[in-house]
């Protein structure tokens, strides 16, 4: 097969979309457990992992080279418990419904942007093949 980097950006965008999907699930779970005593909010870290992966490549290389150097198999979203020692209420729950709703809306916009970017990358590939 031809060695090409045509799908590098698509692979990274796909991983980011997967992370946004997981974050959506975590936020939905937080909202569902807003009244559960002792529940601690969950979140998904991906942007920091992507930043580290991009930073591992040479600082003199351009963004295309940095993206090509990312090992997407090792680029994984990390679920974590956020502010586990902090609580809003006496029952130990640390979920704020207003914050979760804002984060949900933000994440949905991010996911839609990622889907549009993936679609545009495929459109670019189709134009090149014509």
Task: Explain the overall architecture.
This protein has one domain (8-129). It contains 4 helices and 2 strands. The chain has a two-stranded antiparallel ribbon. It is elongated and about 60 Å long. The mean pLDDT is 85. Helix 1 runs antiparallel to helix 4 (97-129). It starts with 7 loop residues before the first helix and ends with a helix. It is mainly alpha-helical and 130 residues long. The protein has helices at 8-32, 47-55, 63-69, 97-129; strands spanning 42-45, 78-81.
Task: Profile the largest sheet.
Answer: 2 strands, antiparallel
Derived structural class: mainly alpha
| Overall spatial form | elongated
In angstroms, what is the radius of gyration? Answer: 18 Å
Number of H/I helices: 4
Unreliable segments of 5+ consecutive residues:
none
- Terminal CA distance: 20 Å
- Beta content: 5-15%
């Amino acid at each position: 097969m031809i060695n090409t980097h045509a799908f590098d950006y698509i692979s990274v965008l796909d991983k980011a979309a997967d992370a946004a999907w997981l974050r959506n699930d975590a936020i939905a779970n937080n909202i569902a457990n807003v009244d559960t005593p002792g529940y601690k909010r969950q979140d998904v870290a991906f942007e920091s992992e992507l930043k580290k992966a991009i930073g591992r490549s040479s600082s003199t290389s351009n963004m295309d080279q940095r993206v090509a150097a990312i090992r997407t198999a090792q680029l994984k979203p990390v679920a974590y418990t956020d502010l586990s020692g902090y609580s809003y209420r006496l029952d130990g729950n640390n979920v704020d419904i207003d914050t979760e709703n804002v984060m949900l809306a933000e994440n949905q916009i991010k996911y839609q942007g990622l889907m549009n970017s993936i679609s545009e990358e495929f459109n670019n590939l189709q134009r090149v093949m014509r």
